């Protein structure tokens, strides 16, 4: 299993180590360049000093060094290695420190002398500078002297410089190792301390059970990085709490719904045992009605479960809208007439839909039966189709519903009548209709178009890509 803490520790230490390595390398590199430049500047100064002492006479080029035994003598030159040649290879002057050895004759112009590392004649590493120059010429007895070029190579022991660089490298390496040794526990401690709120959040989450969904994470006391997570977890807990509460209500309502018909069946059975001479057909009819009511409830619950589990697959086809609506309304027409309902259909005759006929018909059956059942006496029912927005609306007047009831209309087994005296409806129709609408790419919504008029609207969902209802061209 991957560990974020280990990954962060490795990444931080790796990044810090690379930064430390490259910064130390940069310090060493630039310090080395500066020391070498300073060393080369010293070689140039010594070469300039020797060139100032070189003179050309009738017998060639010679270098007259001062008497080093005298006060103020240039003792620095005696510690150096130098050699002067004429261009024909004749040695003009050389330092005593060379003994029997010679310096390499490598040179360049005076303005750009060549500098290189070498092994000194006496042993040890050194660094040299080589250049070509014109010595000062002296006229002797008025005779003109033809200028001769001379080659000068000056070398110096660079071991003190190397020791300085080695010391610098050791100091940088030791400092880097010490820094790493100190950094590892500091990073580990910092990450443990930084992850403490996350571990606390995990412990708090682990302590939440189905019986403590009302608990919420303290967002304000958490670090800023964890506050968005805590807010999302609180939102999730709110949804879970609402879902569990709906399930509890659903279980209670389902038990209540089933208890009534079961009690009636028990009563019928007891009556039959006590009064066997009563009408058999009447008893069987009542028993059948109760059984059908329970069967309808179970059937709708199974349809809801199949829809939620993705086991219903819509088969879309072109369906004429008006014939479908007329066929669904026909069984409800007598009841609407008995309630003296004023019914209006505002459906264009040529309107059509592209949908699953069976599922869409089930939606219409539930919506129409609810409109007739819950409309007030002498009320009004209006069924309309708006082609421009592809929306089907069912409006009916109500007396016992208000805006506070709207969030509950699509809850399973919810009914305004808490006593459930009406056994014709079990409170599953609208919940099932919304599930079927979602399968068809539709939204089923409820609202009040006026204070006493409830409107249910079935509209194509945005981005449904033709999965919802669509309207064919309608001639006006």
Notes on the protein architecture:
This protein is α+β, with helices and mostly antiparallel strands. The chain has nine helices and 15 strands. The chain is rod-shaped and about 160 Å long. 18% of the residues are buried. The model is unreliable at 67-79 and 465-476 (pLDDT under 50).
Low-confidence stretches: 67-79, 465-476
Please tell me the total number of domains: 3
Distance between the termini: 68 Å
Total number of strands: 15
Secondary-structure map with pairings?
Blueprint: H1 4-53, E1 54-57, E2 60-63, H2 75-78, E3 81-86, E4 91-94, E5 114-119, E6 125-133, E7 136-137, E8 150-157, H3 159-206, H4 227-274, H5 280-308, E9 316-320, H6 321-329, H7 333-338, E10 342-346, E11 352-356, H8 357-374, E12 380-386, E13 391-397, H9 429-439, E14 442-450, E15 453-460
Summarize the structure.
With 476 residues, this protein is an alpha+beta fold. It is 47% helix and 19% strand. Strand 12 and strand 13 form a beta hairpin.
List keywords for this structure.
single chain; 476 residues; alpha+beta; Beta-Lactamase; Helix Hairpins; Heat Shock Protein 90; five-stranded antiparallel beta sheet; five-stranded mixed beta sheet; rod-shaped; disordered C terminus
């Amino acid at each position: 299993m991957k560990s974020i803490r280990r990954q962060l520790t490795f990444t931080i230490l790796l990044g810090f180590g690379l930064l430390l390595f490259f910064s130390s390398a940069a310090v060493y590199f630039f310090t080395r360049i500066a020391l070498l430049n300073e060393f080369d500047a010293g070689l140039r100064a010594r070469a300039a000093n020797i060139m100032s002492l070189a003179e050309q006479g009738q017998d060639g080029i010679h270098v007259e060094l001062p008497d080093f035994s005298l006060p103020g003598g240039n003792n620095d030159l005696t510690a150096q290695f130098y050699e002067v040649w004429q261009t024909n290879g004749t040695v003009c002057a050389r330092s005593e420190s060379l003994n029997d050895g010679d310096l390499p004759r490598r040179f360049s112009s005076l303005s750009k002398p060549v500098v290189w590392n070498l092994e000194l004649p006496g042993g040890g590493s050194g660094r040299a500078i080589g250049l070509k120059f014109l010595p000062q010429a002296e006229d002797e007895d008025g005779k003109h002297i033809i200028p001769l070029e001379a080659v000068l190579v000056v070398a110096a022991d660079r071991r003190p410089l190397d020791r300085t660089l080695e010391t610098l490298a050791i100091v940088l390496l030791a400092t880097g190792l010490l820094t790493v040794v100190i950094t590892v526990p500091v990073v580990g401690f910092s990450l443990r301390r930084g992850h403490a709120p996350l571990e606390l959040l995990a412990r708090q989450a682990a302590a939440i059970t189905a019986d403590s969904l009302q608990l919420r994470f303290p967002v304000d006391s958490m670090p800023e990085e964890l506050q968005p997570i805590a807010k999302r977890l609180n939102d999730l807990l709110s949804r879970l709490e609402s879902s569990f509460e709906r399930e509890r209500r659903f279980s209670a309502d389902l038990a209540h719904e089933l208890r009534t018909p079961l009690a009636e069946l028990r009563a019928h059975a007891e009556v039959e045992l006590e009064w066997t001479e009563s009408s058999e057909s009447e008893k069987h009819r009542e028993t059948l009605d109760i059984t059908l009511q329970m069967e309808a409830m179970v059937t709708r619950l199974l349809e809801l479960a199949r829809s939620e589990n993705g086991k219903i697959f819509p088969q879309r086809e072109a369906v004429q809208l008006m014939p479908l609506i007329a066929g669904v309304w026909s069984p409800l027409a007598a009841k609407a007439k008995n309630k003296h309902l004023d019914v209006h259909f505002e459906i264009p005759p040529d309107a059509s839909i592209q949908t699953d006929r069976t599922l869409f018909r089930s939606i219409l059956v539930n919506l129409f039966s609810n409109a007739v059942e819950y409309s007030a006496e002498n009320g009004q029912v209006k069924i309309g189709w708006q082609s421009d927005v592809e929306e089907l609306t069912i409006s009916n007047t109500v007396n016992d519903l208000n805006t506070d009831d709207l969030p509950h209309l699509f809850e399973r087994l919810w009914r305004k009548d808490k006593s459930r005296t009406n056994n014709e409806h079990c409170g599953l129709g609208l919940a099932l209709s919304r599930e079927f609408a979602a399968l068809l790419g539709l939204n089923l919504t409820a609202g009040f178009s006026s204070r006493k008029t409830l409107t249910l609207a079935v509209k194509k969902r945005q981005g449904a890509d033709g999965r919802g209802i669509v309207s064919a061209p309608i001639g006006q």
